[in-house]
Write a structure and sequence with these properties.
With 129 residues, the protein is of the alpha+beta class. It is 38% helix and 28% strand.
Length: 129
């Protein structure tokens, strides 16, 4: 179910010329336990594991609701300046568009994605072609 959603969201964002990044987050105390847990839904572009509820991903994205699985749809905009081959003055802004926590909410989102038109999904995700 999670992998289907990842693939579907990747296709939807590509149609809207938006980059799609998948981050795996685990609130296990030990990194290896978190990596083992996330293997069920690989691949990821990046992972945040270890340090229990104190890892940066947990603090910023699931504070107060550490249930898993958890899907966040975030619109993030980066502003950068290119100096030679290096980026400088990087700033970003984030807006959480949707949050789905636990199997029941994710199942509802999955059913919505499977049964909706492209236009309905775009509207739900605040996207436009």
């Amino acid at each position: 179910m999670v992998n289907y959603l990842k693939e579907s969201l990747k296709k939807i964002t590509e149609l809207n010329s938006i980059n799609f990044i998948v981050t795996g987050l685990s609130v296990d105390l030990y990194p290896q336990l978190g990596l083992n847990y996330l293997k069920n839904t690989y691949p990821y572009h990046e992972v945040m594991v270890g340090s229990s509820v104190y890892n940066l991903g947990s603090v910023f994205y699931s504070a107060g609701n550490p249930s898993t699985p958890h899907i966040l749809i975030i619109h993030e905009k980066y502003d950068t300046e290119l100096v030679g081959i290096n980026l400088s003055q990087i700033s970003d802004s984030q807006q959480v568009l949707h949050s789905f926590s636990g199997v029941f909410e994710i199942k509802e989102f999955y059913n919505f994605i499977k049964s909706s038109t492209q236009e309905e999904i775009n509207n739900f995700l605040s996207l436009s072609n």
